[in-house]
Amino acid sequence: MTDYRRVYFIQSHQNHGYLKRIIRLCYSEQCLFVILIDSKAPAALHETAQALSDAFGNVILAPSEHVGWGGFSQVQALLNGIELALSASQNWSHFVLLGEQHLPLRRESENGNLLEPGVSYVSSIKYTDMNEGGKKDVEHRYSAICRELPGWGMFPTEGTDSRTWVTGNAQHGSNWVILSREHCSDLVAFSARLSESNFRLRTSIQSDEMYVQTFVATDKIANVRNKETTFVALPHLSGTDDLTFTEKNYFDAVAADFLFIRKAPAELTEKVVEHLEAIAVFSEEELDGKLLASKRTTFPVRTTATEVEEFTNQLVDLLAANAIDVDNFARLNAVFSPRLYLEFKKTGLPEKVHVVLLSEDLEHFKILICWHDDSGDWLQPATFGEFTTHVLKARVYNLMYKREVVVKADPARGFFKVSELAGGVPALASYIERYVEWAFDFSSAVRKTQPSPDITIVAIAKNEGKYLPEWIAYHLAIGVSRIVVYSNETADNQESILAAISASDSRVSWRQWPSVSGASPQETAYNHELQHVTTAWVCFIDIDEFIVPLRNENVIEWLATIPDDVSSVHINWRGFGSSGIQEANYGDVIKSFCMASGRHWGNNHHFKSVARTREAVRATVHNIITERGRRTLSDFQEFNTINNGLSDRIAHETIQINHYQCKTFAEFEARMHRGDANVPNDHPQKKRDASLERFKQLDLNEEKDEAISPFFDRFDVEMERIRDILGDVT
Fold this sequence. Notes:
The protein is α/β, with parallel strands linked by helices.
């Protein structure tokens, strides 16, 4: 058995060029190199590792295995590497853990001068010494008992109260450790114990940053230096988001007596290359010359793209009968292509709730309900009825930092081996169908615990005292939470009416809003109020516009149906004519005028907007501009905007705005004389066409529309209350 000075354990998962580079820079005949290639790595990487092992007697290969980021498989790979090194050589002094993106900072022979015999180098911090953010992160890692899906990482199976153990035992630090031979033997023995520490660590998230550190603390291991030996280019040190180092980082690390640095950028600067080549044992050409043709002809079997496609198509066919749609996102997750990542949707399932299927090998599967929740303390578990949710830390597109919904009704917690399922893939499809139903149950449980949405409607009025009581009464009757009216230089009694109603009903408020030269009074009022709205939703409409839910009992129920990813809904007009009424001595507007234009009349392309207040950044007369999220019509499908206030199509599926723009000719004429609210008072286009000819163009009475009538009873109650409030107000 050959004696070696040190062991370098190199984990490689993606780039055969990186593996060759670290060998030629670090190689020494007096050291042992143990290489672990991730099972799902490209064939070229497996071939390169085998060629290195064939070429050098002191380069050995650990059995390939699926290693998942954040999973215990990373720790198990380390333990396997240590056991292999212990059995391969008796007298080495240190075991050095490296990744393929490490680079050395000095010659291998110099490392011995910086590593004390019998001493391990483990950087860590105790839980009790962490700041509050660090404590919360560590508490989250131990907040659930997790299980690993090969190649993907850890997923929660049930919650656990680990606070007492964490407070007394948990340590956290860099996973790039250097261990003495004695401590390697102790670590292997520690891993074999059936202790609480071992159980907690094996079932936690990102245990590669805690396992060795906690072992050192709980076993009270002596001769351990709390020292980093690898310079990790964290963003605050490098200015890069991908943890790649800069030239300055490299030479600062050399001066600070680090042994290694990571991560290497794709392109190294000339000065860094010059330094590396000065310490390299071989040039690229020399190493390539030493690599023999690999003696091994078979490598770990990887799932092929064709197999993934065939499997996906089979699931699509099986689930179609249950109206479940399948989205294949494998191409977006192909860090180690081809992974299987499928999402399942069914009509009515909220946008932020996904049912997902994961697999690396089409044998081991994980079904999970994923919830995108951006509220509350995101690191803490949250319970909704029989469901508990935990934040995921799986480096996968669309899953990282989302919440997994743990389904207690499923004893398997979504983990399945298809070869052990009676019925194979069809049986797996049946489980997916059950998970879709559980996703609906979870969504219902969430809705029951969350407050109902609320909405403020805002209007600007001028000489509309006659219409305000009805308009206010109706919108309170359909569940509007708050009403704000801006009064613009009125000459009638509207301010007396507003003062009386607002004094008796806290849901209604108003303010005087004088015109300013060069500005639209309507737009300035809207954008002023946008800064003060406190409800979840906001809507700007006119006094001749009435919001009419078509499928819901009130507007609050309608708001609850809006998909989570929609930031604004743009509600089309339904234009109403005069219904043949010629004198303005009728009763209520909404009861008197029931004849409307055809649904596809051009003016019905106009819309008014309802938006999530937190996303709203600016308002125009017809439109609310949002910072992010989908903009849809009332069918919750996206559309194109024309001239800022018209949609390219008309939708009256779930809600409409009854626009009583005509009423009688006398009222129409008075409204036109008030001018266009879109422009400033001193604008040359302020005047509007008040002619009888224009009235006739708008006075369309083609279809009877009584969609508003179900709200009459509630409206009557509110209207009577407001009449009592107003009394003799004039």
